[in-house]
């Protein structure tokens, strides 16, 4: 996309509702647009005063219209609205430009449900603590409702009777109200309620018996830590700074830096969305990725007890990475010199909700060379020749979502050598359960740590997994692309050659969707390659980009019979390719809450749509098994996982070749 019609957020707010046709087609909905959506729905009688909105997000125009858009001819601005009604959830498409409701229909009961409303979350807390069975169970433990903090958690879908008849279930364990910063230090183990947030009623309270509540508050603020152990001596800080100011520009929602430009927005479900990612090749801007964003997150716990087996969260589709964006802290989350930007989403009532400092953008020197070479043969005693090289600077676009006890950093990192990293940083607090054991020498320890680790007295952290799927829609110079894999395979070694083992790179075309998914395997190296088949580079190569690597973790889960994994079959393989379908945005399906797995990436590929010379989408998963340890407590060090994307015969040479040498002038000052 070109920049002339990209308007700043302030301009957008001042001109609405008349300006809809002038906004960038993929910009996020503004505060004024959210107000306009609300008004249109009310004026048309579609909604009433009691209506709540689990999700309002941009209804993207067809890709062809986006790519053809110019300042004077913009597609209508539209929104997809999921909302409550007396009969259940409905979904409407609102044309903001025209002030009309284009469609309005009930969401089928068997399709799954929209994400959790904050109002439902709070209602579950209040409802559970008022129930007589919960009051009695707390009393057995010497607690009153005022001394309990309860945490509603999505209950998954196990295809049993309790999930039918319009039920919208959460299971609600509790903790003793904290004395300090740590809300999770004192779990009330063996006790939880089942709450139907649709009917606003407690389905039952399960109490498997009293287990000792930990006594240590385990706060993690500096004052709380210093009261426990001495702090380290003060040190000279190693800081990042940029005295001359940023080298990037932000024009409305377009970021322009070095050889990169892209558009950004925030949606309530995936969080940060990047679109129109272009790279500068010489003097020409070339498209690389039409759009990429977080697609789904799956966090299943491995404890089979009644209070834990159902903890199989779809953190993006059930809760929302955009909804739970937290303000970023300068000097901790991002460098002091970063540019901080707000995010705009809608609250439960459809009103605009601004999250301050939800995005930070910054450049940093990583202290490594982008490239270097020291030429030993150029050296003489009289004239030593230093290494030739260039320092690397990267651009980081970062958000942090706090979903329950975990904090997830999501980074999009752009490099001067033309590569990208999608980074996930997991930090926050382990989910812990109460235990009788205070040491591994206790007689109860072996049984209590069968599915987790005793990390402190009376605290066991359960084993679990973290999986993150990203949708990456390559449009290399154009929407029509090809996809293949580059396989590292044994080469045939000629007879008589002293070498007996060699390999070669073999291109394997992917003709259709059933050929397009695979596992990363160090014993069978393979990379996904997307190319533009309609043009050739200077040496005759089809220009391409490659998903080079991703941090993954597999296990032989039962994807045929185990409900959580039937709902999240996308974790079975790390790399997927599908034909472009604008309705297929999330690997876990459109309605994740209590979904049945029928609308997921793993099911879409069964259509086996052709992928030759078509508009296609790649999907890539990063993940890890988390075996907790004492060092995770009371707060985890940030654990990073990455997905690496790089050009493959797209540029005619190393694009980092043209980075300036910061010491060139001083090295040549004698000339």
Short description:
This protein is mainly beta. Strand 2 (78-85) and strand 3 form a beta hairpin.
Distance between the termini: 44 Å
Quote the beta fraction.
Answer: 35-45%
Q: Indicate the percent of residues in helices.
A: 10-25%
The main β sheet shows up as: 19 strands, antiparallel
Radius of gyration, whole Å: 27 Å
Low-confidence stretches: 1-22
Counted by DSSP, the helix tally is 11
How many beta-strand elements?
31
Chain oligomer state: single chain
Gross morphology is: globular
Mean pLDDT: 94
Protein structure class? mainly beta
Domain Copper amine oxidase catalytic: 240-657
Keywords: Copper, Metal-binding, Oxidoreductase, Signal, TPQ
Signal peptide: 1-23
Pfam family, one: Cu_amine_oxidN3
Show the helix and strand layout.
Layout lengths: L8 H7 L15 H13 L11 E4 L4 H6 L9 E8 L2 E8 L4 E7 L11 H13 L1 H9 L7 E3 L2 E2 L14 E8 L10 E10 L4 E7 L14 H7 L20 E3 L2 E4 L2 E8 L3 E11 L2 E17 L11 E2 L1 H5 L19 E8 L5 E22 L14 E16 L2 E10 L4 E9 L3 E3 L10 H4 L3 E5 L2 E4 L1 E11 L5 E11 L12 E7 L16 E6 L12 E7 L12 H4 L8 E5 L21 H4 L9 E13 L9 E13 L15 H4 L4
Describe this entry's structure for a reader:
The chain is mostly beta strands. Helices cover 11% and strands 38% of the residues. It has a 19-stranded antiparallel beta sheet that branches. Strand 16 and strand 17 (352-373) form a beta hairpin. The longest helix has 13 residues, at 31-43. It starts with 8 loop residues before the first helix and ends with a helix.
